[in-house]
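Translate sequence into structure tokens.
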Amino acid sequence: MCRQFKSSITVIFLLGALPWLLTACRNSPKHYFLQGRVLGKSASTQQLTVNHSDIPGFMAAMTMTYPIKDTQGFQQVQPGDLITADVVVGGNNDYWLERLAIKDKAGRGAVSSLPPHGLLPGEPVPDIAMTNQDGKAVHLADFRGKALLVTFVYTRCPFATFCPLTSSKFAAVQKELAKTPGDYEKTHLITISLDPKYDTPPVLRKYGLAYLSDDPKGFGHWEFVSTSPDDLRKLATAFGLEYFEQDNLISHSMKTVLLATDGTVSHSWSDNQWTNSDVVAALRQQAAINR
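Result follows.
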């Protein structure tokens, strides 16, 4: 009797634990092999920028910045090193590098010969044609006289620390600028889609409303746009942004650019490490120049 009772408890426990076990399996981190050359190292954020070859099952070859959870490896690695590592993607779509190993140190000191990082401050930006969330044609030149903050996302992005974080930070910038009508009038935000085939005006409008608290009046200051594949490539190249489409996902680096009131580059930020206060201050500074 006791033996049968104990077995029943065991069966009940396992059945009760089954949903948790299935969830744990679904959320267990996935590991992918990376090999590439380190282009940059940030001690303050413990991140490496790596120009890597194809990562089978994860993304195409590109340049991308990764958080590092291998403290010892991070201390040893230097820009120019050829490395291998594990890319780990967590259950919440967070990602990082572990198990860093240096394969070749011969490239140290030669980072300057690696790919360029886009337009420099003071250089003009290509004036491409775009279509916004309402189906209206717009050009970057339409915003001359205003400080213009530009970034790139795609609406299907599944990584919480990539496009969704960028859009959330833009939403915070939008709200802060709205507190000062003069700054709001002399500034503008644009989010450019990296997925023009999917991100049609209705899709962009729905996506934008989610970050504008469902208030369409916000589109008057923050527009969500797409452009042709050729013009998208031209603009991304100008800003030093890389992207590749693979298996309905777009692997891309991160870039946010502030254009001065004359349409030239004023500031640029890679990844999502910029603070809302720094970007708002830069926008206000540029807006004040043309008053």
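Note: DSSP finds seven helices and 14 strands in the chain.
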